[in-house]
Amino acid sequence: MRFLFVGDSMTIGRAGDYSWRYRMWQHLEASPAPYEIVGPRHELYDTEANAPASHAYADPAFPAAARRHLAGWGEGWLHMAPVIRETVARERADVLLVSLGLIDLGFYTDSDQTAANARAFISEARLANPHVRMVLLPVIPNIRAESDAPFAAECDRFNTLLAKAVADLDTSGSPILLASHPASYDIHTDTYDGTHPGPTGEIKLAGAFADAMHQAWGFGGAYGIAA
What we know:
It is a single chain. By secondary structure, the protein is an alpha/beta fold. It has one domain: Rossmann fold. It is about 45% helix and about 15% strand. The two termini are about 25 Å apart.
């Protein structure tokens, strides 16, 4: 299995983070199933340089090959849909682990357009690999939704539309899973700013993807890293 992480700032991580990608790598390492992590990017986001230019992972022993991803600070479904076909084809990705949507709704598109971009992403990925598998994470709790009721409503509506897209587009030849919100995820303790995951949040995000694959596809074991 060749895994491609796709996401926004919560997935790329900032300088000094472990990232939930690191936590997923730990899980994959503990699984007997062969795997490879693929992607065109390796970096963390350097907030001082305002650019994806850092290699300062919290664990310097995180292997370079396992750091690969397709994630960007400020990037969403809007940005990933146009590039996912070429990336899947070039990287020969088998499984996409996708965490997108919050940045779209916060800055670029409403729930309807965001859902349309998610559907376009799925279609484009399948043009590169008709058998590609995908695990999609809904928009998770965030601090803006606590104080901005219209934004919270848009997040909820997008999650409903994303679930409908998964139901409509899931096939036996190219299955799509909707991961569950991470259990007990608390923006006050699992993030460092109400949005971006800290160490416990990273573990819970990785667990959401790992448990979805284990329960639906029998891939790997249940996620075993405690938050």
